[in-house]
Amino acid sequence: MIDPFQKLPAEIILQILESCWDFTSLDGLLQISSKANEVFDTYYPKITEAVLASCSMTSGFNGHKFRLVVAIQAAAIGPRTLRKCLEDKHWEPMPPVMESIFWSLECSTPIRQAIKAAAKVHRLACICYDSFIENIKKTKPARPNVSENEMHDWLCFNTPVRLTMPFPPEAIHPPSFVEQFWLHRALWAFELYSYSYRAATTRWAWSPKKIGRYTGAFLIFPNEMNWHEDEHLTITQYPVDMNDFGNKVDRSWGRSLWFAKHPGSAMGTFRSLRSDSLVNSDSPLYQCDLRVFRGLGISFWDDWRLYKMGLQSKMGFAAQPTPKYEKPITDVLYTWYSLVKDEDLVDKNAFPFRRRNPWYIR
C-alpha cells in the first residue's frame, strides 16, 4: 500500500497529526503511514498534548485517566501515587508527575498503547450507543390506562402487561454530548482498572487478598442493583457518528462539559421512585435482574431523554427545556416496571406478595 504521507515534509505531517480531532483518527493515521510513525516518534509529547486538548471525549476526568494509563505503562508511578491521583479526581492543580508525563518518557511506546486504548474506548462507545438506540426503538413499555388498584397489582407483578406502545420519537434522538461523555467516562474507568490490575499482578506483586479488595472497591454497585453477567455476543452493529458539540440538542440547551461532571441520575431516580412510593422490600421488584435497563443504556441517558421515555416525572437541570406537564409518579413507576418482564426476575416465587392499601402508591 502506498504511504499517503510519503512525499510530505515532516513539518506538514506534524501539523496533520496535531490537528486530529480524536485519538481514533490519530491511531488510524499511524496504522497506515510509516512516515507518520517516524514523525510521531520524534514529536510524540507535542502531538499527544495537542490531540488530548482538542478531543472533547478525553477532556477532564477522561484525560486524567489517559495520563494515568500512560504513567502505569511507563512504570512512572506506583500504587500510592495512583491512589492519590484517583482520590483527587479534579486534579486542581494537576499533579506535577502527570503534567510532565508525556515529556519524561524515553520512547513513545507507553503513549502508543494509551492511544490504542483511547481509540478502542471511542469505537466501543459508538457501538454501545448504536445498540442502545436500536434497543429503545424496539422496546414497547406499558402505558398506564388502568385503575389505581389494577396499577398497584401490576407494580407488584400480579397481572400481565397491557396496552404497550413504543417510546416516542423524541426519546430516540442521537446521544447528546453529556450522554457521550458519561459513557466514555465509564469505559475509561474499566480501561484504567485493567491496566492497574495488570500492574498489581506483575510489577507491584500484590497478594490475591489485596487484589480482591481493590477489585471489590472498584466494581462496587449499590445493593439495589442486580447486574447479572451477560453471554458474550458478537457485535454486528456499525458505529454511529459521535459528533461532540454538533448535536442540536446540546446547542439548543447550551450545555457544556460542566454538566458532564455530574453522574447520570437514571438509576438514582429509579431507586428514589421505588422508595418514595413505599414499594414493599419483599417485592420481586427489589430482586429483578436489571439487565433490561442496562441494555437500554438507561444509566447513561440525561434527564430530558428520561422524561421523554416516561421514566422521570420532571427535569433536574434548569438549563434544560421545562416540560409542560409533570408526569404523575404512578405513571413513571408503571413505565419503569413494565420494562422488567417475568424472565428478568431472579426467582418470581421466592418473594412473598403482601397486599397493601392502594394509597401507598402516591
UniProtKB/TrEMBL annotation:
Protein name: F-box domain-containing protein
Lineage: Eukaryota, Fungi, Dikarya, Ascomycota, Pezizomycotina
